[in-house]
Design a protein that fits this description.
Helix 2 (about 60-70) runs parallel beside helix 3 (about 90-100), helix 5 (about 150-165) packs across helix 11 (about 300-310) and helix 8 (about 215-225) crosses helix 9. About 35% of the residues lie in helices and about 25% in strands. It is built from 13 helices and 19 strands. The longest helix is centred in the middle third of the chain and has 20 residues, at about 150-165. Helix 4 (about 120-135) links the parallel strand 4 and strand 5. It has a six-stranded antiparallel beta barrel. A five-stranded parallel sheet has the order 2-1-3-4-5, with helices on both faces. A four-stranded parallel sheet has the order 7-6-9-10. The protein folds into two domains: about 15-165, 3-Layer(aba) Sandwich (Rossmann fold), CATH 3.40.50; about 170-450, no CATH class. The protein has about 450 residues and is α/β, with parallel strands linked by helices. Keywords: Carbohydrate metabolism, Isomerase.
Length: about 450
Amino acid sequence: MLTRTKPADTDGRHIGVLFVASPLFSEAAAAELITRTSRLMGEGGLQGRFTLAGKLARDGESCREALSSLDFDALDGLVVQLSTFCTAELLHDVLDAVGDRPIPIAIWALEEAEEIVTNSLCGAQLWASTLSRFGHGFTLLLGNPEDPALAGELTAFAAASRAHSRLRGARIALIGSHADWFTNLAVDPWMLRQRLGITIQQTTLVRFLEACKADDDAVRLGASRWAEASFDGGDEEAGRLALGRTYAQLAAGLDRIEADAVAIRDWPEILYAENFKGTWGALGELSDRAVPIAPEGDVMGAATALVARAFDPASLPFLTDISGLDRARNRLVLWHYGVSPRLADGPRSLDPVLKQETFPLKAGSMTLIRLSLRDDGTLRIFVCEGEIEAEKSRANRAAGYFRPADAGAEELVRRFIDEGYEHHVTAVYGRWADAVLHLGRQLGVQVDHV
């Protein structure tokens, strides 16, 4: 079966929160702050994502006791709140507890504008500079528990930490290779493992297709997925059965693969095979499965989809091309196949030869992301937030008008091209730029935020 090798967000993994302080400052102030923080962690999108240490760390003994209350093997990240000023002595205990686990660390400093009660910010400077001396990365969080911006930063840090955890040690199945002449999608397996710990498990198309066998019941069940679609060729029953057969066959082949994400060479070999009619429509339905799929053998596209799923396990990330520019309306045309029809805002239709399934993308907030690995091993991330507009695009396949939130449409596409990013981006509904920025800090890589 296709399975994740890392636990999903709902499988008991959390962000740990450690509270540190000094006997030189008010323990009552620290305790009051912990109460406010506990209240924050039980609200809204933060609820259920954090595990709070059971004790305030004020010296070596209490710090080790507090650390023992956190299961570091089940943590995606660690937030250390400087509940008051605290010397870096306790940092050594923290790093000993972390060990060689690649757990991102955030240092949380409070905002004190007038009377200095906790001196938290000064303590955070001390901890951060010490981490830097040790060559250990960190993220600075700044604000009080009642600050909405701080809650947003905690949410983004948690999402990035989940993505960091899913990427490290992930397995990406590469079925075949990249599509013909898409040489910009080629990835050096050794380099990817060095940079992210990702293993590429490659199999041939021939071996994969040998496992793509389905019985009549599976075909009929697959055909039901197109019950609401229209067929330009006229014979709707035959069209649904052809699509159902391809869906069931590809699902059977994918069920034999154990991976966190899949990159598949779908064209031209599968797309134009007589017994795989409707490959692109079937890939759209298969994109609903727990393991994300990137067509055209796009390994880094698959890794990017893995990040999006870590941000939101219920999301349906999809590979897309930036195919059109409308300068007058400051928007781009996004266009591709293999998109889940659950993201459609309008009717689904199939062309006469079942090659393309067409529907408009639903309106809403969207983030475009691309993890990219240069040939010299440099890892970088492109990200841009924006909106899919309600106006329907006339393009075929799954298409929509994308308006960037903080940049011009032409600026976005020029930046993407000038920086040499591969021509695919991964699109996911929601606002995820802050999480990507946190992930970039955790990975120590460049983020091109447009």
